[in-house]
């Protein structure tokens, strides 16, 4: 989950590295560092803490260097410290390396190197790599030494390497960890994620697993691990650099909450043809042929994407009449899955690089020839390239660690996919699709209306931000909303919060309810409304503090509530797109009031690319 940046070109390298690292900080912020070539030396500056701490340290350096690498760390091996910060050097300071991933056999390799008399300065697995390269350099040129080294590594890695041996080159390698190459004019870049270098280029080469590249100011050669040259297409990404800017918002998370209406508008314009009342996905001709044979669907995801997957299950079962199992990636990949030939796998990931989800997809493909579909936000990501079919969520860069706009975009894409399959299977007729599209068209406007309640939600947050525990309850389409609301609160405020299916409250959680327990309940008028009313009465009887998300003018429930947030009445299946917004804002306002670092919550990183 660390962030890597590299640059070679006509610009001064230090400002490029620092600016790009700031854009990568959501990938990890335990420590940061840079290495650059200058005056026939590799200079290293690194420090425990945030990028701003590194920037303050670097301000005294006025160096006209033009090639270098940088790193922001999410600690795995070795605690956050100056010595464990990247980059790492070999014994004679002639090679510098940065690394994202985990080397599973590093202890074996380290023992071997220790016997050679090599001294280690850090507790990291990464330092093994640079010493191993140096070891092979005795009888090889640098490129061959790197290739010999990476063939010995087990685990996952994205690497960027500079050396005094080849002063004009950056060597990069990829295996189960993301890495992209940015192509400029008279300059080239490497980064873990696209947003890091969007302000310099929107032209990219996407490395595949088992590939490495030799990058100079004017050239990029890509090869496989056997050293064979590979022709790679330069692809253009349509993200705008302003999408990755905070603008006038205090935090990226708040900006991304407010971007949700625009994201849904973009998805509507991308996937819906209003003239014909059709849902249209690109390159789905072969998928249409596959639909009649699909008898079961597995959906695999992690974190927030797992919550959208549960909603996807309901959509697919309701509209397409296909049985669906939803699994967490870290469980699915290790279970003894019974996969029949008529099973479709759907994977969901904002980044398209989530390690457990990606491993689940690869396991699925190893076992059979069944087809796979991914829903993700990042063009060129591993899941997008490894899947047979892709639906992009078109959310633009999501910088805040706690996902918001990507979540509603995933739900929306799952809804469209379910309607699409249901229509192709003749489960839904043209009139149903036309009416659904008309209702879908209202979503951005309704989202904007809910967002106008920020001040009211702020006042609720002021009352309850000091409480230590929250319970979130919902049913049917809004059970996942309860899960996601609780996750948002605990992620960014560090308040203990649990989400439950409201019908499960009597099976344990009710024991927790007293006058010190705020209970947030999604109670919109849907097919399970009366059941939720019963749950609210049970909470009231036990003196729980009731915070309701309810429909406008619901006089029946308002007298139960200590606090309430109103949302417009909408179809059952569309409500998760709306009811989550007040919970996102509530979590944000509480965390902000507590003085938490909303965009960079402790111990978390945006993209979990290591197991």
Describe what you observe in this structure.
The chain is an alpha/beta fold. The chain has 3 domains: 3-241, Aminohydrolase, N-terminal nucleophile (Ntn) domain (Glutamine Phosphoribosylpyrophosphate, subunit 1, domain 1), CATH 3.60.20; 246-441, Glucose-6-phosphate isomerase like protein, domain 1 (Rossmann fold, 3-Layer(aba) Sandwich); 444-611, Rossmann fold (3-Layer(aba) Sandwich), CATH 3.40.50.10490. The chain has 20 helices and 27 strands. The chain has an 8-stranded antiparallel beta sheet, covered by helices on one side. The mean pLDDT is 91.
List keywords for this structure.
eight-stranded antiparallel β-sheet; Glutamine Phosphoribosylpyrophosphate, subunit 1, domain 1; alpha/beta; Rossmann fold; globular; seven-stranded antiparallel β-sheet; about 600 residues; 3 domains; about 25% strand; single chain; 27 strands
Q: Could you give the topology of this structure?
A:
Layout: E1 3-9, H1 13-24, E2 31-38, E3 41-48, H2 51-58, E4 67-73, E5 88-89, E6 95-103, H3 106-115, H4 126-136, H5 142-152, E7 155-163, E8 170-175, E9 180-183, E10 187-191, E11 203-206, E12 211-215, E13 220-224, E14 229-230, E15 235-236, H6 252-258, H7 260-271, E16 272-273, E17 278-279, H8 285-290, E18 296-301, H9 303-320, E19 324-328, H10 329-332, E20 343-349, H11 355-367, E21 372-376, H12 382-386, E22 389-392, H13 405-424, H14 430-440, H15 443-451, H16 454-464, E23 469-474, H17 479-493, E24 496-501, E25 518-523, H18 529-541, E26 545-551, H19 555-558, E27 563-567, H20 576-593
Parallel strand pairs: 18-19, 18-20, 20-21, 21-22, 23-24, 23-25, 25-26, 26-27
Antiparallel strand pairs: 1-4, 1-10, 2-3, 2-4, 5-6, 6-7, 7-8, 8-12, 9-10, 9-11, 11-15, 12-13, 13-14, 16-17
